[in-house]
Automatic annotation (TrEMBL):
Keywords: Plasmid. One of its GO terms (biological process) is regulation of DNA-templated transcription. The keyword Lipid biosynthesis does not apply. Coiled coil: none annotated. InterPro entries: Arc_rbn_hlx_hlx, Ribbon_hlx_hlx. Gene3D superfamilies: Met repressor-like (1.10.1220.10). SUPFAM superfamilies: Ribbon-helix-helix. This is Ribbon-helix-helix domain-containing protein. CDD domains: RHH_NikR_HicB-like.
Length: 61
């Protein structure tokens, strides 16, 4: 456990707007697919996976 004098780095976040219909599709997927507990978690995972795909494509060039 960190001491009070040690600084604990907190993640910083930004806000991104998405169309309402896309948010509703995500919500439906979360309801029917176990594994995600929130829209935020789903979106973070989707972005992470897409970044990995793009990095792999760049490596193949």
């Amino acid at each position: 456990m960190p001491r009070k004098s040690q600084s604990v780095k907190k993640k910083q976040y930004i806000t991104v707007s998405i169309p309402t219909d896309l948010a509703e599709e995500i919500d439906k997927l979360i309801e029917t697919n176990p594994g995600y507990i929130s829209r935020q978690e789903f979106i973070i995972d989707a972005i992470r996976r897409r970044i990995e795909e793009l990095i792999k494509l760049e490596c193949k060039k």
